[in-house]
Amino acid sequence: MASAESTPKTNTATAQVSSVYGPVPSWRVGQSLGIDPICINSICSFNCTYCQLGFIQVRVNERRLFVPTEKILADLEQSRWGEADILTISGSGEPTLALNLGDIISGLKNRTGKPVLVLTNGTLLHLPEVQAELARADKVYVKLDAASEATFQRINRPVPGVTLARIVQSLVEFHSMYPGYLGIQMMFTRVNLGEADEFVEILNRVRPDEVQLNTPTRPYPQDWVLQARGSHEGVDYPAKPLKRISREEADALRTKLRELTGLKIISVYKEEK
Ligand code: SF4
Question: Could you tell me if the CB of 67 is within 6 A of ligand 1?
């Protein structure tokens, strides 16, 4: 259950805020139109130390309705969706917390004919209904920043009861039933850089279609601001920069993971030709 201090507060201004933003350029998917199924506060089952939304205001792992599907589709009509390569459901927190995720995915696909991607932290991936809803998306990218429970707690700071072991097992199960494209997103800092061997073991269990190596490129906002859900370009608010791994470290990691898994590994630091 959500604690009293973390109960979502419905913001009456939500009706005026658009749940669709961008398109914004993404190094992974091109021009990405952002879809925010939460919009009210920052709401997530993690509280990652590098989160571009800042310290998560509402930390829960229970599903509920935040933004009606009709509002999202109405906001879509007002957006520049025709310029987007892909529609990305992410926004102000963990999208699988939205009870209407499946309807949103179907609605977006029906209206635009464009591919839909969902970014998730995987904390609800063990639920059959969440797996079935995500299966409607063309692509699902799941966050994996730790290869041990201790590092998982330190980086992702999940709500009580969530374990890395359950997420990894859910990933294996989901991949066996999912007909779409499964990506694994890994955010590297000094904290998890030493777990490459353990990551190899997990990746060889899951066998995703793609692995993305990232390092924090956006600052950590001191408070939640709605604009933090999209590109931080030109956005001015108090934030602190985060330590990244270097190009050399990322290159070495990519080479190692590639050699030991045979998987497609891409990096935020583009490969030099
Ligand atoms: S899972 Fe995503 S939204 Fe949630 S805290 Fe981590 S980075 Fe932020």
Answer: no
